[in-house]
Write a structure and sequence with these properties.
By secondary structure, this protein is α/β, with parallel strands linked by helices. It contains 16 helices and 17 strands. Bound molecules: iron/sulfur cluster.
Length: 394
């Protein structure tokens, strides 16, 4: 099965108030250059699970897990995530892509996504990214409301977002995804409605829409603790979610995953690999990989990651065999089509509904899940309470 490649670029212009990702503020170009060299070295060292496209330890593969799900060296998606990868210089991106091409057999129609933030690119840089083969932009808008942009400490204003979007189109990006966040402290349903209206009017091919989660250790968590910010009520969050479903569906977007909407044919190929439990190799600080059987993860601190790679070409800090059946079930339920119960039984050798009979009966009765032509799916209401449903499998 073709694999995906994830490349983590941890640098950002500043730190947003809600962010708990592995990121560092971009201070000096030497540090970035050293990081890129480490990343290239890690890629070239070849992931441990790959040995001519095969598992190193074949005996560890689940008896019920078909061989075609193993990671191979064929790659059909590459994803630059972060952080803010658009802060990289084109020649740094070129070095990274060259190293991927040396180790992996990259498909001609590879989807190459780069996360880009407003006010981090110029037309010249975008032209260079396009000519390097980057064909999808994941654009971090979050909100068009100036007050909310300040609350999130995004470091750009709404006009920066509008202008960068125009530049992306002028550079020829024909596959653009927008990120928007709902449920910000102080945000009203009307604010959210205006955000949706502006996003839809700009006609991106794809939208990723999240409800704000307040993570421990972030500035925003501190502001909430000290009483300076008040999280919105659950009822309002539910209304925002429903409004988003109605508006985007009416505008011709398909909700193919709980938080993701696309015009037909523009679903993210890379992210779909995670939800279908397909292999993805991650490189860079804090990057995670799944080779068809194991998950493994890299060191989370950038300076330590660079040192580890410079000394031993590996920054792996843990590896674990995962419960494939459980992960397949709850990741698959995130997708609009859900999971085929027949495929599940063939693959894992047991009946999922029978195994979780008591919980599933409860969910069916509460209208949270439904069965549709042999597929188990979340209902509209179930998508709102998805965490409760997924906890059955964890
Ligand atoms: S731009 Fe993204 S990764 Fe960077 S600090 Fe903000 S939220 Fe975090």
């Amino acid at each position: 099965m073709p694999s995906g490649i994830y490349l983590h670029i941890p640098f950002c212009k500043s730190r947003c108030s809600y962010c708990d990702f592995a990121t560092d503020v971009y201070r000096d170009s030497d540090a970035v250059e050293r990081y890129v060299a480490a990343l290239v070295r890690e890629i070239k060292s070849e992931p441990p699970a790959l040995a001519g496209g095969q598992f190193v330890d074949d005996s560890e593969r689940s008896a019920n897990w078909p061989a075609e799900y193993a990671a191979g060296s064929d790659v059909d998606t590459i994803y630059f995530g972060g952080g803010t990868p658009s802060l990289l210089e084109p020649q740094q991106v070129e070095k990274i892509l060259n190293s991927v091409n040396k180790v992996f057999s990259v498909a001609n129609d590879v989807e190459i996504t780069m996360e880009m933030n407003p006010a981090t690119v110029t037309p010249e840089k975008l032209d260079a990214f396009r000519s390097l083969g980057i064909n999808r932009a994941s654009f971090g808008v979050q909100t068009f409301n100036e007050r909310d942009l300040k609350l999130l400490a995004r470091g750009h204003d709404a006009n920066d977002a509008r202008q960068t979007y125009r530049m992306l189109r002028e550079a020829g990006f024909a596959n653009i995804s927008f990120d928007l966040i709902a449920g910000l402290p102080g945000q009203t349903l009307e604010d959210w409605s205006r955000n949706l209206a502006e996003a839809i009017a700009m006609e991106p091919e794809h939208l990723s829409l999240y409800l704000l989660e307040i993570h421990e250790g972030t500035q925003l968590a501190e502001q909430v603790r000290s009483g300076r910010r008040t999280p919105i009520e659950d009822e309002l969050a539910a209304e925002m979610y429903e409004l988003m479903l109605d508006r985007l569906t009416a505008a011709g977007y398909d909700q193919y995953e709980i938080s993701n909407f696309a015009k037909p044919g523009f679903e993210s190929r890379h992210n779909t690999k995670y939800w279908r439990l397909e292999p993805v190799f991650g490189f860079g600080v804090s990057a995670h990989s799944f080779d068809g059987r194991h998950r493994y993860a890299n060191e989370r601190d950038t300076a330590r990651y660079v040192e580890m790679i410079e000394h031993s070409s590996s920054a792996e800090t843990y590896r674990e065999a995962i419960d494939l059946a459980s992960e397949f079930a709850f990741l698959g339920l995130r997708l609009e089509n859900g999971i085929s119960l027949k495929d599940f039984a063939e693959r894992f050798g047991f009946d999922l509904k029978e195994r979780h009979k008591a919980e599933f009966n409860e969910f069916f009765n509460a209208g949270l899940i439904e069965e549709n032509e042999g597929n188990l799916q979340l209902t509209k209401k179930g998508k709102l309470y998805s965490n409760e449903i997924f906890s059955v499998f964890v």
